[in-house]
Amino acid sequence: MDFLINVLKDHEKSLDALISRAEDVISEKQSLLETQKSGPPDSPQVKVVLKDWPEFRRRLKDVDIICFDLVESVFVVSASAGQKIYEFREVIPSNASGPVKMGDKAETYRLSIGLELHSAGTGAKSERSRAFELDPQYTRGWLSNNLGVHQDFIVCGDIEL
């Protein structure tokens, strides 16, 4: 009987040692995967500017946040994915115009990606150089549907390096 008890105790010690080693290996593997995903702490982020909207969409795996803005006459969408920042830009031509809406005479302009911009109104700008503006709620919803990213991860603004 004592012999069986001693054998069981030896097996218990061996199992404890194996479980401890397995936990260490799993922990090392997880930290290695996290380091590979985010890069070393001191490695700089890389900014990739894409000219092709479908290519931009394909690159959005494991997105942290998406920012959009209209800067001067350029529509900009930036996405942070790990150590990379992907950016898509589309310039609005200075002679851009679209169909006039009845009533308020506001114009819309459809970007090549399908997003609609609305004129900022008449006033300081002449008919030949019309300013357009973003509707943040509409743009957030449009990007969410088009990119397959929840609206909580899409903001009006910019990503700074």
Explain the overall architecture.
It is built from three helices and eight strands. The protein has two domains: 1-38; 46-156, no CATH class. It is an alpha/beta fold. Strands 1-4-3-2-8 form a five-stranded mixed β-sheet.
Describe this structure in a few short sentences.
34% of the residues lie in helices and 25% in strands. It is built from three helices and eight strands. The chain has helices at residues 2-38, 53-58, 136-147, and strands spanning 46-50, 65-71, 74-81, 84-91, 108-110, 116-119, 132-133, 154-156.
Per-chain topology:
Blueprint: H1 2-38, E1 46-50, H2 53-58, E2 65-71, E3 74-81, E4 84-91, E5 108-110, E6 116-119, E7 132-133, H3 136-147, E8 154-156
Parallel strand pairs: 1-4, 2-8
Antiparallel strand pairs: 2-3, 3-4, 5-6, 6-7
Shape: rod-shaped
Percent of residues in β-strands: 15-25%
The count of strands amounts to 8
**Strands across the major sheet, in which order?**
1-4-3-2-8
Query: What can be said about the biggest beta sheet?
Result: 5 strands, mixed
Report the mean per-residue pLDDT as an integer. 82
Percent range of helical residues: 25-40%
Question: Topology as H/E string?
Answer: HEHEEEEEEHE
The unreliable regions are 99-103, 124-129
The rounded Rg comes to 27 Å
N- and C-termini, Cα separation: 70 Å
Give me the secondary-structure category. alpha/beta
Number of separate structural domains: 2
Q: Helical element count? A: 3
